[in-house]
Design goal:
2 copies of one chain form a homodimer.
Chain A: E1 4-7, H1 13-22, E2 26-30, H2 34-44, E3 47-48, H3 52-57, E4 61-64, H4 69-80, E5 88-91, H5 97-108, E6 113-116, E7 119-120, H6 122-128, E8 131-136, H7 139-149, E9 153-160, H8 164-192, H9 197-204, H10 212-223, H11 232-250, H12 255-269, H13 281-287
Parallel strand pairs in A: 1-2, 1-4, 2-3, 4-5, 5-6, 8-9
Antiparallel strand pairs in A: 7-8
Helix pairs in contact in A: 1-2, 1-6, 4-5, 8-10, 8-11, 8-13, 9-10, 11-12
Chain lengths: 289, 289
């Protein structure tokens, strides 16, 4: 593969494009709002494509990074209008496994390949290139893609067939939901005890309670300031996907997911849809009144 | 300080004694059941004290590592019968802040000092000397003790006055409870989706869902085998302490703690009191039927 194109230059996609550029791989970019494409192009010298189809004409490895299931289908549909046979589309969005399978089908009709490649590690992981990436798709296409994917992620693991990257990401989103609630409740509890929470966070970060959220998001909680990050409304959407997947798989209910869905619904009712998910601390602090 | 004595040579205390020995600090040991004292003494050359009071006579830094609040009070009472003025007792048990204050009072009457020094990091942390230690007590006594405490813990943080080490540990125990439930529920969910869970654990361990439990206890869950570790019955006791502390502090209810208390009560009803807390996975797998 020679020429990488990146579509979707938001909080995750823009730093991914910059990391491809650092590895000498970035060829073209496209974004729905052109200002973001111009910013990345000015910085990297990448070509600004006129459309996804235009980008597909001279890129053989295309990374998409969008928000919603319908965006992924739209991008795959538009890419299919210009894509070269043998080209690979790696979608780093978090969407359903069914969406991944549909996107793969749209591209396969044109002789192109699709990998579902959702990532975890936050905006800081995207900037540093230290993301964890869980990949679904054909094993051979995965191996061919690994050098490109390694430009944006420190850990790249092939999970299984198309859709299994998204299924793995659903497991990740459920786990992190529970960790957020645990960290938020524990920090609010520590504050109610009158402890010096800077010291508490320092020591807890190195013992058996250690976790990414504590290390990277407890400062938001202690400062009562929740900049993005990862939006409440998006994590709520992901947990609804988890709920539906569990019901489809075996009818199980996920108590941790259900409680965080309720927490996020309360946050959204209060107007905090666009804050970082660490804002769940607002509710936990509210319990100590 | 020259001579360290260790009381309580269980899964945590025995490796602590060995680490003091490695640093040339271990002088004497005592344990309720003498076989464990003999095992450590044979290995390290430490003197086996006849009683806690006997140990106190020639040790100026005494570490206790027992299970229950009453054990800590009993040890402090017995140590007070032989302790030297200026000696320091560092209790690494997890008990209430009130117990820590009572133990400190018993020793202060004899001119000796007390630090509550609960630890986190599991038996593997005790063996490797990589524990996190949260310390309550006088700042000057803490600084004097730091070289000894650093022999058994990689991170030693002074939280505040007597009892605040235990209060910090309560925060730790609440946080880890929620993380255990999140990891257990997410792994059971992933299995229900038919994913290769070795690969899922590998990739999730490096992203935003990363946590100590996932890294160190998910194998128990995947193997459905829950060796100690940390007993269900002990963590249940700790969460009851958290519940009581929250009520005393401001009347708040801790939803994460309440749900894990219910989970542990169900495990104990099924006879799993003595398994490692990762056994909460039994209930989560049971939800997928």
């Amino acid at each position: 593969m020679k020429a990488v194109g990146v579509i979707g230059l938001g909080a995750m996609g823009a730093p991914m494009a910059r990391n491809f550029h650092k590895h000498g791989l970035l060829h073209a970019v496209w974004n729905r709002s052109p200002q973001r494409a111009e910013a990345v192009a000015t910085e990297t010298g990448a070509r600004i494509a006129k459309s996804p189809a235009d980008l597909a004409r001279d890129c053989d490895f295309i990374v998409t990074c969008v928000s919603r299931d319908q965006d992924v289908i739209d991008m795959a549909t538009q890419l299919a209008q210009g894509i070269q046979p043998g080209a690979i589309v790696a979608d780093t969005s978090t969407v359903s496994a069914a969406t991944a399978r549909e996107a793969a089908r749209l591209l396969k009709d044109k002789g192109a390949h699709f990998l579902d490649c959702p990532v975890s590690g936050g905006t800081e992981g995207a900037i540093k290139g230290t993301l964890a990436m869980m990949v679904g798709g054909d094993a051979e296409i995965f191996e061919k893609s690994r050098p490109m994917l390694s430009a944006i992620a420190a850990k790249v693991v092939h999970i299984g067939p198309t859709g299994s990257g998204q299924a793995c990401k659903a497991v990740n989103q459920l786990m992190i939901a529970g960790v957020y609630e645990a960290v938020a409740e524990a920090i609010a509890f520590g504050q109610s005890l009158g402890l010096d929470m800077q010291r508490v966070v320092e020591v807890l970060s190195t013992g058996a309670a250690a976790n990414w959220v504590l290390t990277n998001r407890s400062a938001n909680m202690l400062n009562m300031d929740f900049p993005l990050g990862f939006k409440v409304a998006l994590h709520h959407k992901d947990l609804e996907i988890c709920r539906a997947m569990a019901r489809d798989a075996d009818g199980a209910v996920l108590p941790v997911a259900e409680r965080m869905l309720a927490n996020y619904e309360e946050l959204m009712r209060q107007g905090y849809d666009d804050e970082d998910v660490s804002a769940v601390f607002r509710l936990k602090r509210g319990e100590h009144t």
